[in-house]
Design brief:
Elements (H helix, E strand, L loop, with lengths): L1 H7 L14 H13 L7 H28 L2 H16 L16 H9 L4 H6 L2 H7 L5 H11 L3 E9 L4 E10 L12 E10 L4 E11 H5 L4 E8 L7 E8 L6 E7 L42 H11 L5 E4 L6 H15 L4 E5 L3 H19 L3 E4 L7 H6 L2 E4 L1 H8 L6 H4 L1 E6 L10 H18 L4 E6 L5 H7 L7 E3 L13
Parallel strand pairs: 8-13, 8-14, 9-11, 9-12, 10-11, 12-13
Antiparallel strand pairs: 1-2, 2-5, 3-4, 3-6, 6-7
């Protein structure tokens, strides 16, 4: 009891309840004594302190994981700081420089008495720091520690995906110098979460590694994720980035969605109708009789067949992978071959690997099977101009077709394009999106000047904003097919 009273009277920074006669009161006092680095002479109390500190750190980390999982930002913030205080044995209100063990205690005490924050120390030159602490020789060492203390700048860009979903892209710029003595060999761990202070709720959280090479090269790292939008009028978020190891190392950015132009509520997904699967023999032309290796179209293909093969409407097909969207492109090509002989079809795939895969497949089925001429246009393959002029189908990448179609006035074969198929059009929001936008805009421009309609068929996975993409492609309700992600020809089972 006498030792307990001694601990109570020295080094206890926070309130506690229960006193030394209760377990929770004793644990509280021992944890505070451990963080304050008090000298304990009693072997029994010393043993209890070490036991409480070792298990307390583990339990607090588990509670932190629970708080993050349940979305409690304030509780998670307090628990993470408490865990770091136990690991470093310093208080949250102490100067963060106490985490550097090459600075004398009396210098650290003086920094705390003068209330020199890390921001002030960063702005001050080493000589001024030394004079203020009345120890000129320590100025350079303190300045080096300040430069090595982890700090980051966060820049947030908000992009509405739907009326209820926001995409946030973070640019994380390191603002410190790496030193293997104080940091790990490869990366520094951080926690990033997005919180709503009004509702005390965490909408997103993740464990993030700040790589050494980005700090050394002074290059930013990017991170993107999506969060829900609950209140459209008064919604504001806080992006918080906290070091997993260093006390006081954190970044903050406030995001307000007030004034952000949100997309309109989109059309509901296309319902998969309960139709009888159509046989492939429904195409009434002998040369196409043996084209397909199957006897019947699947439910998705059956529903979209009429719009693709019997009309000239622009069509958007959004369906999960494996739904047979390649057949949709082939049906649209068949219509050009039959009704507009001599005109060309252009198939655009975002990757060279997809272009080569289509060429390998269609060279046999369309080239040899239907007697049509195909040509591949990528950066790796440059055919002669005669092959391009005489080709019925051009398989290419967005960048290559963008370069070719720029001089459409001087290239008659560009003006003879009747069908433009854009595969993986959901990549419109990625780096290649602007190229696709230019291609579609130029196609519409060419069509208006040549008075020849160019049909556009877009193939994609299931889209959240199919209405926006459809209006951009001038697609009416007749050509809009955006099925749910759960619509699959072969049901997906989880074992």
């Amino acid at each position: 009891d006498q030792d307990g009273c001694t601990l109570q009277s020295s080094g206890i920074n926070a309130e506690y309840g229960g006193g030394t006669e209760n377990v929770y009161g004793k644990v509280n006092i021992l944890l505070q004594a451990y963080i304050s680095q008090l000298h304990i002479e009693s072997y029994s109390l010393l043993s209890d302190t070490l036991y409480v500190a070792q298990n307390g750190s583990r339990i607090i980390r588990a509670m932190f994981d629970i708080a993050v999982h349940n979305g409690y930002p304030l509780v998670a913030y307090k628990l993470l700081n408490l865990s770091k205080m136990l690991n470093h044995r310093i208080w949250e209100g102490d100067t963060p420089l106490r985490q550097f063990h090459n600075l004398p205690p009396h210098i650290l005490d003086r920094i705390e008495r003068l209330n020199l924050t890390m921001d002030r120390l960063k702005e001050m030159p080493a000589r001024e720091i030394g004079h203020m602490l009345q120890h000129v020789a320590m100025g350079d060492r303190i300045k080096q520690c300040v430069d090595h203390f982890p700090a980051v700048a966060i820049d947030s860009v908000v992009q509405p995906v739907t009326a209820t979903v926001l995409k946030i892209e973070l640019t994380i710029t390191p603002q410190f110098r790496w030193n293997d003595k104080w940091h790990s060999k490869t990366s520094e761990p951080w926690w990033i979460w997005v919180e709503d202070t009004n509702n005390d709720h965490m909408y997103h959280s993740e464990y993030f590694s700040l790589q050494k090479k980005h700090v050394v090269e002074d290059s930013p790292q990017k991170l993107s994720f999506s969060i829900p939008l609950i209140d459209k009028e008064n919604m504001s978020y806080i992006v918080r980035m906290i070091s997993d190891n260093w006390i006081g190392a954190e970044g903050l950015d406030c995001i307000s969605v007030k004034g952000v132009i949100l997309p309109q509520d989109h059309l509901p997904h296309t319902q998969l109708l309960d139709l009888q699967p159509l046989p492939t023999s429904i195409i009434p032309y002998p040369e196409y009789k043996d084209y397909f290796s199957f006897s019947h179209f699947n439910p998705v293909q059956t529903q979209i067949l009429h719009s693709l093969f019997h009309t000239d409407h622009n069509v958007l097909v959004g369906a999960p992978t494996g739904s047979g969207k390649t057949v949709a492109a082939e049906l649209a090509m068949f219509r050009v071959f039959i009704n507009y002989p001599g005109d060309k079809c252009v198939y655009i795939a975002p990757l060279k690997a997809l272009v080569k895969e289509r060429m390998k497949d269609w060279s046999v089925k369309i080239g040899k099977g239907l007697g049509k001429k195909l040509v591949e246009l990528t950066g790796d393959v440059v055919p002669d101009m005669k092959a391009v002029v005489s080709a019925d189908v051009i398989v290419t990448t967005p960048e290559k077709w963008d370069g070719i179609s720029r001089s459409w006035q001087n290239r008659k074969y560009v003006q003879k394009v009747r069908l433009l198929v854009i595969d993986e059009i959901h990549l419109l929001g990625n780096d290649r999106g602007p190229v696709l936008e230019v291609i579609v805009s130029r196609t519409n421009f060419i069509s208006s000047h040549t008075e020849q309609q160019v049909r556009v068929v877009g193939l994609s996975t299931a889209l959240a904003n199919a209405g926006d993409v459809g209006s951009w492609l001038n697609i009416s309700n007749v050509g809009m097919f955006n099925f749910k992600p759960s619509v699959r020809p072969v049901p997906l089972e989880v074992h």
